[in-house]
Structures are given as C-alpha cells and as structure tokens.
Amino acid sequence: ELESSPKKQQCAISSQWSSDYDESFLDDLSDTDSWFDDEENTSSLSDKEKTLLTLANMGYTVEEASLAMDRCGSCSEASLDELTDCICAAQMAKAADAYLPDDKPAKRLYNEYDKLKKRKSSVYESLSRKNQRGYEKKILNENEMIRIPKPMIGFGVPCLTESCQVTDRNLPEGATGPPYFYYENVALTPKGVWDSISRFLYDIEPEFVDSKYFCAAARKRGYIHNLPIHNRFPLLPLPPLTIHAAFPLTRNWWPTWDTRTKLNCLQTVIGSAKMTHRIRKALENWDREPPLHVQKYVRDECRKWNLVWVGRNKLAPLECDEVEMLLGFPRNHTRGGGISRTDRYKSLGNSFQVDTVAYHLSVLKYLYPGGINLLSLFSGIGGAEVALHRLGITLKNVLSVEISEVNRNIFRSWWEQTNQKGNLIEVPDVQQVDDNFLGQVMDSVGGFDLVVGGSPCNNLAGSNRVSRDGLDGKQSALFYDYYRILDSVRRMSRQE
Ligand code: SAH
C-alpha cells in the first residue's frame, strides 16, 4: 500500500519542499477577470461558483468545470492545475468516444479485458481465483479506487538522506520485463481511469510523482512501468528546485507577499499581455505594499498563469526557453525552423519532465550497457529520448510514432544535433502500427528493450463538451493503442 509505507513517509523531504501553495489556493480564489470591473457581482458568489468562473474564463465549459470539481474534491482540496488536469483527462475520454464509433471505450476496454482473462497464455491465467474475483469486484465497486499518495513521491525521489531507501515492490507474475515498458498520464483523472489503465497494464500499481521534487515546477503524473526501482540515480547537475534558484533575476522584484517557491504545472497556453498589463495598473495605484485584496488578486493570477516578477510591478509569463529549462530539455530544443511560439508552448506543455522520467529510466543503464532498442509511442518532442541520451544510454534503434509534424521536426532536429549514431524510424500514427509492421521492425532490429509512451491530453480544448456519458468512458482510445502495441511487442518478444 503506497500510502502507508513508513519509509516513504520519511521521504517526505524537508518542509521547504512540502509547500502547500498548490494544494489549497482555490478555497480563496476569486474570479479575477471580473474582480475590478464587477466586484459587486462576484463578491456574492460562493467559493465554488468563483472557481467555476475562473475555469470558464480559462476556456473550459461550465459543465466540464463542475464535473472536474465533483471528481477532484471540494475547492479546498484541489488546486487549479489539478482541476485542469482532470478536465483534460475527461476530454481525453470524450475523444475516445468519438474515436470508437461502434462502442463506448469503457465497454470496449472491458470486453478486451474479458478476452484477456480468457486467453490462454495470458498473464491472468496465472493469477489466483481469489485475485480474479478481486478484479471483478473492482469493476463493480466504483468506490474502490486507486488512491493518490501524499506526498506524491512514487517509489522515491532523489534525496540526500539515508532514510530515502525505497521499499521493495513485487510485480505481478507475468508483468516483468524484458521488454520493459513505461506509461505516463496525468495523475488526476476522472474516477476509475487509473484502475482501468492498471488493469490493462498487467495489474501494476501506478507510481504517482509530482515533478516539483525534481525541478522548480509542479507536474503531477502517474507512471505505470515494470522497471526495477532500486539503484535509481538522478541526472546531474540537479536542476534548481525553487523559482529563485531557477530565475535569480526575479529575486530583485519579488514582493514578500508573493510566497511562491515553486511554479504550478506548466500548461500549453500562457497568460496574456492584457492580463499582466491589468495587474501592473492595479499595483501602480499603491506606493508601497498594496492592500490585502489587491495582493490576493495578484497572487491568484500569478498561480493561475505561472507569472514571474521581471520588474517593478511587472509580471510576465515564462519564456519558451525558460519552460524548456524547467522541463529538462536543452535550450532552444523547440526553437526555430518555422515553429511558432504558440506551438512551442503547446508541445512543451504536453511533454515529459525529463529529470523525473530519467530518474525512473536510469536503471536501464546497468541493464543495457551497450544501449537499447526503443519503441517510442506518442513521442512528442522526445522527452524519453532526451532523458535516455542524458543518462548516457545509447539509442541503437528508435521507432518513433508521433502524429504532429511540428513535433516530429523538433525531435528529428534534436536527433541530428546530438549526432545520434543509431537508426531512427518515424511513423506518424499509432494506428498504422499493426502486428505485421511491428514484426518486420522487430525482426530487423532484434526486438525492443523498452516501450515508452504517454497518452495525449488535449489541454484547454474548451469547445470539447463533456457529457456524463463521456466520462463513463473512462479511458482514451489512444491508451488502448498503447496497450495493443505493447502487448503485441511482449507477445512477439516471447516467441523469438
Ligand atoms: N511524452 C511526449 C509527449 C506526449 S503528448 C513528450 O515528451 O513530448 C502526446 C503526443 O501524442 C502528442 O505529441 C500528440 O501529437 C501525439 N499523438 C496524438 N495522437 C496520435 C496518434 N494517433 N498517433 C501518434 N501520436 C499521436
């Protein structure tokens, strides 16, 4: 049980890290857009209504927002980025509905699960009857859900004290590698999503990690993988862990009443110039410290949009290269060659936090001193590849599947700039990756050692309405492709 391990509790790191800035600010969040124009109207609103308005102003539908608030708990429990992650996961489930014309995703997944259970040689064969009953119970009982542990440190994060030894975990029989695999998705999903994902991925328990333990920005993600968890090591140098360490110049302008030490989850869109202008105007009315209500308004905007202080009364969203740095990518990784700033933020906002993923993948360095063959699904801008490269793990052959041409260009240019000697095969769509094709590639490269992927998540697609039905879908069709391809690779690897 993740929550109750005493060793992990000790790993709670120092109090300076367990800042609760992102845990509870919604209970006093005001509707900042209309705060100045329409104070009368919003002051009569409940906290819940204010949060709804805030989310609506960010482009979500009220329906999406209220469903997310139902699922993530009351205002005092969920932070804004948790809520947006949750909406985003719901949109993913909804997209899955559209993608599978004949069937509800959940139903399709459960059918598939049934098939799995029945299939000979399936890993489920080896499970005891007792366990199988357990699964059925899980399907029937919606209240029995995977819980997200606090602090969100998974099986451990790099830290200096001895007490940070990770506890052991026993992978379910039949789930062990090779081939190894690593699956990522947002931690805060609609109810039951992680249970479904886990059930498919050989009943492995997710490892939930907030990247705030690796860098100066929060990023709450779940990872399901069958990698060993002992002898992990972090990328060096360790990245700065606080905003001030990451951006020393901001220190000069940072007011004492803005107590943030970490940024919130980096999103795919940034705050507008209009908004930072409005904040400057609001602050310019006061010679010294602004009154409390103005401080609160500014703090809320800062948290919502990850603003940093760049001058007197001047706030700004992060620049693309600053986001690259926070996420562990080389500077200019997403820059140039006709890529717009909007696209850069979008690609970065969807990517892995490299230091976090590298920590988990580091164990492969001992296992594969000669390098690995990688199947990279939903490669994006290559978070996994950058992590492996920075760990010094040679990429012998990479089959990269990524639908966005912008992302493929970014990734290919990184591949060339880092003088990769390996072989890169690019395919746009996971749907093109069938058993036949996989078999051919596996024959020619000698099989895959690692299958990596994080299902997509369309952030801020405000027009994408979510119905209660859609949420029942629970899972995205693209996750299903991840599972389908992984399972084929595992099957074919065993036949070799
Ligand atoms: N882990 C990646 C980003 C994952 S975001 C990184 O580190 O950058 C999910 C990615 O899946 C997006 O880049 C999106 O373009 C891609 N994608 C969406 N649909 C796809 C499909 N059908 N086939 C392949 N890739 C797809």
Automatic annotation (TrEMBL):
Principal location class: nucleus
Class of the enzyme per the UniProt entry, highest EC level: transferase
GO molecular function, one term: DNA binding
Keyword Repeat (UniProt): yes
Residues annotated as domain SAM-dependent MTase DRM-type: 167-496
Keyword Zinc: no
Annotated GO biological process: methylation
Enzyme Commission identifier(s): 2.1.1.37
Family as reported in the entry's similarity comment: Belongs to the class I-like SAM-binding methyltransferase superfamily. C5-methyltransferase family.
Descriptive protein name: DNA (cytosine-5-)-methyltransferase
